[in-house]
């Protein structure tokens, strides 16, 4: 999401590196560039002005620290300011009330409310071991109720049925009463969205808010709507005592301005980022990590956390052992790696979080690497287990059968085999100490010594051209 902003800011910040001192004169141009970069990213004007003024006064009043050169010092000021604009600390949900704690979700139609209800339900269930019930009070769109039912089933949480004939308040009351009987910890209430902010919508959600007395009232907003985000956020914030924001579609090509404006305009923290259509694409929002990401400094913490949750540790350990013993790396192992990478949101999403790799993430997306990986996986799927373990035995007729079976071309298969051979060579080199060295190099990314070379390092498998 922050690619443009990140590129522009890194460019402009480069101008002050190498300067002996930060002066009004030598930061003037950089500040102008910073201002332009923020405006282009759709950050609201008052936020930009305050931001630039803050950075200027801090930069000039700064005692030159011996540990940092002026360029680094300026970068540090910008980073701190980004963090403070987005909220000083990471703010999580406050559900410490007599159960069930109610979470009310509000937002415009299509903002991603229903999807976010399911993502949040899954998050609370898996990460915090909560018993969650979801309910839809969207009586205008029966399809929305059905959509929530399907999603609830997918994430494995309880769904409380409702119909278009019922009143939203009655639905929510009944769901909460049911949740109490079932000893549920959390009830998430999805509400109707409208295309525009209108009085009826606001009155309805205000009545709902009063009736359910939520522990959290989350405003769901689409990062893609740019400058409009500010007005919408303002209107909802005036109508409802919001406790936080879920910023969705952060995976899209939105310019990121909403992330910087919303907190300033509403005074309410962004608590989660929606980063994809799938139900596991939800990240707690950490202002410091996002600031690093914007400045091209990566977000290793999020990557590590993701890896810890998503990497199948048994498989990873098995591969590490195999490589250490010098056993052959086969196509089954390669397929495991491809799958792990996808479960972490694909290569692009991983690279975005690696320091200095933001641009690479764009490249990966442009070159459609994720779909190339999918093709590789399909080809491997079409092989017999024997062939996967003995790729050297693939002769012409086997190759023909595999490509027919996977709907691919012989060139695709040959490319896969070439890449496999290169990887296999690399694995051989890592026999013994090499692997350990590499794991250390990755900063213990996978935790506990388990890890996937191709997946965890954010490196492309050899043979991929960037
Ligand atoms: N890429 C991406 N798509 C998302 C994200 N969140 C939601 N979507 C998509 O956005 C579209 C709208 O999401 P919904 O959850 O149906 O939106 P809603 O706000 O509930 O809309 P109504 O029910 O019409 O009020 C769907 O196609 C979702 O898959 C996200 O974080 N990233």
From TrEMBL:
Its EC number is 3.6.5.4. GO terms for cellular component: signal recognition particle. Pfam families: SRP54, SRP54_N, SRP_SPB. GO terms for biological process: SRP-dependent cotranslational protein targeting to membrane. Part of the signal recognition particle protein translocation system, which is composed of SRP and FtsY. SRP is a ribonucleoprotein composed of Ffh and a 4.5S RNA molecule. The keyword Phosphoprotein does not apply. This is Signal recognition particle protein. Its main location: cytoplasm. InterPro entries: AAA+_ATPase, P-loop_NTPase, Signal_recog_part_SRP54_M_sf, Signal_recog_particl_SRP54_hlx, Signal_recog_particle_SRP54_M, SRP, SRP54, SRP54_GTPase_dom. CDD domains: SRP_G (cd18539). Residues 269-282 form the SRP54-type proteins GTP-binding domain. It is an enzyme of class 3 (hydrolase). SMART domains: AAA (SM00382), SRP54 (SM00962), SRP54_N (SM00963). The keyword RNA-binding applies. It comes from Marinimicrobium koreense. GTP binds at residues 107-114, 190-194, 248-251. Belongs to the GTP-binding SRP family. SRP54 subfamily. Composed of three domains: the N-terminal N domain, which is responsible for interactions with the ribosome, the central G domain, which binds GTP, and the C-terminal M domain, which binds the RNA and the signal sequence of the RNC. It is found in: Cytoplasm. GO terms for molecular function: 7S RNA binding; GTP binding; GTPase activity. NCBIfam families: ffh. Involved in targeting and insertion of nascent membrane proteins into the cytoplasmic membrane. Binds to the hydrophobic signal sequence of the ribosome-nascent chain (RNC) as it emerges from the ribosomes. The SRP-RNC complex is then targeted to the cytoplasmic membrane where it interacts with the SRP receptor FtsY. Interaction with FtsY leads to the transfer of the RNC complex to the Sec translocase for insertion into the membrane, the hydrolysis of GTP by both Ffh and FtsY, and the dissociation of the SRP-FtsY complex into the individual components.
């Amino acid at each position: 999401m922050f690619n443009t902003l990140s590129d522009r800011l890194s460019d402009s910040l480069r101008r002050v590196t190498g300067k002996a001192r930060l002066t009004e004169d030598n930061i003037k141009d950089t500040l102008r560039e910073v201002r332009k970069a923020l405006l282009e990213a759709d950050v609201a004007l008052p936020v930009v002005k305050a931001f630039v003024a803050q950075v200027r006064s801090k930069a000039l009043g700064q005692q030159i620290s011996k540990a940092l050169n002026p360029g680094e010092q300026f970068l540090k000021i910008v980073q701190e300011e980004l963090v403070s604009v987005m909220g000083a600390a990471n703010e999580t949900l406050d559900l410490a009330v007599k159960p069930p704690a109610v979470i009310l979700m509000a937002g415009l139609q299509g903002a991603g409310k229903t999807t976010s209800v399911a993502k949040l339900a899954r998050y609370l269930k898996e990460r915090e071991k909560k018993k969650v019930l979801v309910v839809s009070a969207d009586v205008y769109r029966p399809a929305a109720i059905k959509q929530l039912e399907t999603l609830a089933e997918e994430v494995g949480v309880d769904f409380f049925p409702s119909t278009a004939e019922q009143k939203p308040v009655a639905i929510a009351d009944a769901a909460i009463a049911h949740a109490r009987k079932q000893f549920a910890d959390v009830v998430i209430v999805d509400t109707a969205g409208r295309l525009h902010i209108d009085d009826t919508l606001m009155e309805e959600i205000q009545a709902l808010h009063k009736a359910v007395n939520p522990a959290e009232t989350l405003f769901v907003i689409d990062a893609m709507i740019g400058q409009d985000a500010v007005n919408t956020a303002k209107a909802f914030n005036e109508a409802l005592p919001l406790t936080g924001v879920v910023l969705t579609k952060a995976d899209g090509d939105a310019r990121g301005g909403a992330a910087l404006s919303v907190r300033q305009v509403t005074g309410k923290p962004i608590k989660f980022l929606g980063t994809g259509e799938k139900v596991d694409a939800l990240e707690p929002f950490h202002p410091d990590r996002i600031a690093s990401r914007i400045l091209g400094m990566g977000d290793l913490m999020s990557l590590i956390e993701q890896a810890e949750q998503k990497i199948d540790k048994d498989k990873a350990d098995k591969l590490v052992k195999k490589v250490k013993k010098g056993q052959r790396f086969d196509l089954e192992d390669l397929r495991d790696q491809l799958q792990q990478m996808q479960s972490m949101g694909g290569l692009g999403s991983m690279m975005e979080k690696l320091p200095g790799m933001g641009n690479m993430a764009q490249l990966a997306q442009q070159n459609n690497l994720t779909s190339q990986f999918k093709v590789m996986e399909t080809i491997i799927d079409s092989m017999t287990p024997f062939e996967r373990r003995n790729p050297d035995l693939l002769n012409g007729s086997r190759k023909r059968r595999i490509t027919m079976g996977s709907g691919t071309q012989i060139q695709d298969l040959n490319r896969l085999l070439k890449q496999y051979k290169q990887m296999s060579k690399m694995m051989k080199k890592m026999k013994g100490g090499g692997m350990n060295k590499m794991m250390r190099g990755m900063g213990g990314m996978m935790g506990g010594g388990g890890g996937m070379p191709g997946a965890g390092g954010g490196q492309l498998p050899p043979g991929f051209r960037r």
